[in-house]
Structures are given as structure tokens and as C-alpha cells.
């Protein structure tokens, strides 16, 4: 068992540029320019090895950390949204019965479009790579949504004088900002994970996911820390206008810097313009394959002619379908590579193997539980723990108590983020003993138990202490499902190399599988947005929020125990 461990296998060694021999037992390339063998001969003879399992080069720790910085920035902004979205919406006058509906629009769009984005990124022909164009576009959308969400009320107050119109426009602008930010922030996770899988070797994927979890926790901690401070009475708050403008300044700066760092962390190799090797001259193709000590993983190196620079074109698990199409296209030059349409993409998800489907259902239950608690936690602290009222006059004691509860709620969520970062290391220690399935179960169970205790004993001390269990769930949701996806793909690659794999599985890329998991996040938001507001009205108290989270998490525990496939 190697996931989340620091075991370092012997690296795959590439021949020096210009080397003319492969060192394989059967296949020897004497000369590229001699013309003794054609491109098709090489592909035919080496296809089972080349297109079975090919691994990108190893990445340094610094590169992986830079790549993971986008998760720090994303979670920083997510923390700001989670802490302030409900208070901001209630403060501009949105009725309490409708405040959960703001989460419906974004996830509905995401649930419909996420598989298409994931599949489209699998086939993107941009010279900048497959994933980064999508990441950049979604990153800009996140910044726009954050701007409208935190500044909408101030802008409307400055431009509109009529009180009734001011309230309506403030609600519209703030809601649009929340929807746009949430849509982009949820969408960006799939391309980021697929980007990591594409450019990293198997062991680096494990390390990269670990750094993602670590930086996610740290980003959330800093985001909640910024939200917990009283900026309204500070010199910076007076300079920028209000507390929300200060928070926006730090959020926008953090996201912009770390998005740029992420985009330039590890270069992507763009796909061939026509999806085949036919664009290369016949005398420029030389396939060099070496085997790693891990048994079957190698690297693909194209040694060009003297006129061309040596070029490394690694292919990861998500590129297997493209590798297959490259082989067929070289044999049939006029055959175009198959692209996924909406129908074929949905069919690929519906017809996915049962262990993928069970993983998606479990992910849905986990995110439903997590979002029930996280999206309304600061409101829970303000109304239940501190007995405040968000609808009271802004200069009243009841409203001040509510604001104080929101600030303390931010501190609790900061504890959650720190515990998430720390638990990412605890996972590494527990993994050899209980495995991935055991870690999955523990994360859900601890969260379910903790939230039930918060609902039963809603006092300040108990609530703040138990906020640490939120981090256990957060780290679990951000790492374990994607580690399982990586393991499932590795098993399929080995099976295909041995000729025992299921041909139907070749219609899925990693982008689609990551998108399927992210779709569960969107679906969870739809469930929470559609049902939680009505549930609060029926119960007459927001305490039902944490009790609902506990129930869904414990149901997830049962599903993990019965249906999630164990992997070594």
C-alpha cells in the first residue's frame, strides 16, 4: 500500500537526447534516419507496451507545492464565502425562508455542465495545455463573483437612493455574485485534479493530493482568520470603507497571486493538433521506453531529428483514450478522434463500473452532510449559541450578539481548517493500518458523531472544541475519493496491459471521472438548497442544520461499510 506515503521508487531514467537505442530485449532501433522501419512498424510492435501504461517524469516537492497553491487560494475564498454569505444575504433583507435557495442555481448549472467541461478538457487542443485554459477562465469568474458578493451592497447603496429599490437591487447583485463565485469555485476543482493527474507520475499524484489537502486546510484557516477579525474599527477598514471591503482586498489578492503561481507551476504538454502522430515527420519518430522498478511504469520520449529539439510527451492515466486514438489514427490517417457529446458523456457516467458509481453516491452523502453544516454554521452560532437576531436593527443588542456569534463562528471554522491540515498528516500514519476504506469510514463517522453532539449541546466551549471534527471530514472529502479514483485507474491500466480489461472503460478519461465526483458536490448543493430552508421553517430553529448533517454523515458510514470496494 503506497498511497499517502513517502516511499520513493527508483525513477524512470530517460536516455540522453540523441540516443539511438532503446535497450529493450526485443525492440532495437538502429537508426532513425536509415528508413529501415516505418512509423507504423514501431507502433504495431510496441503498441502493447507503449500504450499500456506510460508515466510522466517525477516532479520535485517545490513544483508540487506550487501546483497546490491554487487550493490555498480557492479555500481562502471559500472560507470567506462560507462565513459571510448567509449574514450578508440576511443583512440585505433576504427572507430566512429563501436564503438556502441561493445555492440552487449554481449547482443545477454545475450538475448539467460539469461532465461536459471535464470531457472537453480531455480533448482541448490549446497550445497552453488541456486543463489550464479552463482553470484560468474559471479563476477569472471566481474573482468577478467575489467582487459582486462582497461589494454589491456598497455599490448599490452608492448608486440607488430609493429604499425599496435599493433592497431589491442589493439582493439581486449579491445573489448573482454568490452564484457566479460558487459556480466557478466548484467547477475549477475537476480541471485542477485532472491537471495534477496528467503531469505527475503515480507516486507524485499521491504526494500532490496530500499537498492539496494540506494547503486546502491552511487556506481555509487563513480565510476564516481574516473573517474573524474586527476590521470595521481598524485603520484599514476606515481607509477602504468597511469590513467587507477589507476582506475582499485580502481575498482578491490571495486568489490572484496563487492562481498565477499554479498556472505556471508545472508545464502541460499540449495534444497534437489533429489528435494523432501524423503531424510528425516519419524520420522524427523514435519511441524510447524504459521500465521502472514499480513494475510496468515507464516514460515515452520522442527523440527528434537534428532540426527538432528533443521533446518529452508523457501520457498519464487520463490520456489513455487519446493514446489509443493516436495508435488507430496512425494506422488510419483519415479517421478523426472521437469526441464526447452530452449524450455520450452522460452515458459514460451512467454506465460506469459499479465501484465508481458507489463512490459517487458516497461522495454525495458526504458532501450533503458537510454542506448542511458548513454553509450555515456561522448563522447557527449567531442565532442558537449567542441568541442573536439577524433581522434586528443594526444598532440593537440582538444584532450585536448575532454579529459576535458570526465572528466566533469564524474562529470555529478556523479551527476546522487547521485540523484539516493536521489530519492530512494523521491520514498518512493511519493508512498502513486501516487502508483507504478505513480512512473513508473514520472521516464520516467522526464528523457524524461530532455534529450530533453540537446539536445536542449548543454551548460555546463544546461547539468550538468539536469544530475540529469538521476538518477530519474536509480532509477526507478532498483526498480519499480522488485517491480511490487513482487506484481504480491504476488497476484498469494493469488489466489493459494484460489484456484482461473491460473495453468499455476506455471511453472514460480522468477528466470525466473527476467531473463525476464534482457533480456530486453540485447535487449535494441542490439537495441542501432545495430542502434545508423548508426544513428550518418546519422545525422553527436552525439547530436542525447540524442534526441533518449528522444524519447524512452516519448514513454515509453505512454506505462505505457495505458498498465501497477495498483496494490494497
Automatic annotation (TrEMBL):
Keywords: Membrane, Transmembrane, Transmembrane helix, Transport
GO MF assignments: sucrose:proton symporter activity
InterPro entries xref list: MFS_trans_sf
TM helices/strands, residue ranges: 64-90, 96-113, 134-156, 168-188, 209-226, 246-266, 364-386, 406-426, 438-457, 463-485, 514-536, 542-564
Membrane topology: Multi-pass membrane protein
Residue segments, region Disordered: 1-40
Location in or out of the cell: Membrane
Gene3D superfamilies, per the entry: MFS general substrate transporter like domains
GO CC annotations on file: membrane
Protein name per UniProt: Membrane-associated transporter protein
Organism: Coregonus suidteri
